[in-house]
Design brief:
Blueprint: E1 3-4, E2 43-47, E3 53-61, E4 68-78, E5 87-93, E6 97-110, E7 118-129, E8 134-137, E9 141-146, E10 149-156, E11 159-164, E12 171-172, E13 177-181, E14 184-190, E15 195-203
Parallel strand pairs: 1-11, 6-15
Antiparallel strand pairs: 2-3, 2-15, 3-4, 4-5, 4-6, 5-8, 6-7, 7-12, 7-13, 9-10, 10-11, 13-14, 14-15
Length: 204
């Protein structure tokens, strides 16, 4: 069976999605804007394995400003569902996302269904994906036309994963906050009460 998977850039991104709404008792207070330690986010981070793939996220200070980050995502595909063995394909984007710091809030993170809330100090961000294109390379990659749309496809024994080869227009990124806890980075999204984890990444 052929599976078509259309991926957004950070959707870097949706290897580990948080679920559910918030719990009463946690607040979405107004952000303070006195300081933001953006250096804590700089570096290389990786996602957990999901659907044959691991995301590697490179975060850097944006040039010419002291309150913004650039976020680049490379997705590596494997033949196995456990992401072991040799990589068979690599997916890159033509432009990085930008996240601009707008303040800090004290709240909590909902890391996923059935998991306890995590108290957190969250750096609020306005995150934007620019106009961009996607490219996949590797010995298992083919370029196909499906329903009139060009696609990059990775063929597995049981099917294929396809990413449309088109211009992805600028849009908001699927998170509005960042927080580091230990060696983990959470991309989070406000849910009206607290924050849901969009993705959890580990420092390399």
């Amino acid at each position: 069976m052929r599976n078509k998977i259309c991926t957004a850039a950070l959707a870097l991104l949706l290897a580990a999605c948080g679920g559910g709404g918030g719990n009463a008792g946690s607040s979405l207070s107004s952000p303070t804007t006195t300081a933001g330690n953006l250096d804590v986010y700089a570096g290389t981070w990786t996602s957990a394995c999901a659907s044959h793939a691991i995301d590697t996220v490179s975060i850097k200070r944006a040039a010419g400003t002291n309150n913004a980050l650039t976020i680049g995502v490379t997705r590596t595909y494997y033949a196995t569902t456990t992401c072991t063995g040799d990589a068979i394909a690599t997916q890159t984007w033509s432009a990085d996302a930008t996240a601009t710091y707008v303040g800090t809030v004290t709240s909590s993170i909902n890391p996923g269904p059935g998991l306890a809330l995590l108290p957190a100090t969250i750096d609020k961000m306005v995150a934007q994906l620019p106009d961009r294109t996607v490219t996949l390379v590797g010995t298992f990659v083919t370029h196909k036309t499906i329903d009139g749309q060009a696609n990059w496809c990775i063929d597995y024994a049981g099917g294929s994963v396809c990413v449309p080869d088109r211009l992805y227009v600028a849009e908001a990124a699927p998170f509005d906050g960042l927080v580091v806890q230990g060696t983990d980075l959470y991309e989070v999204k406000a849910n009206g009460t607290n924050y849901d984890a969009v993705e959890r990444l580990t420092k390399q």
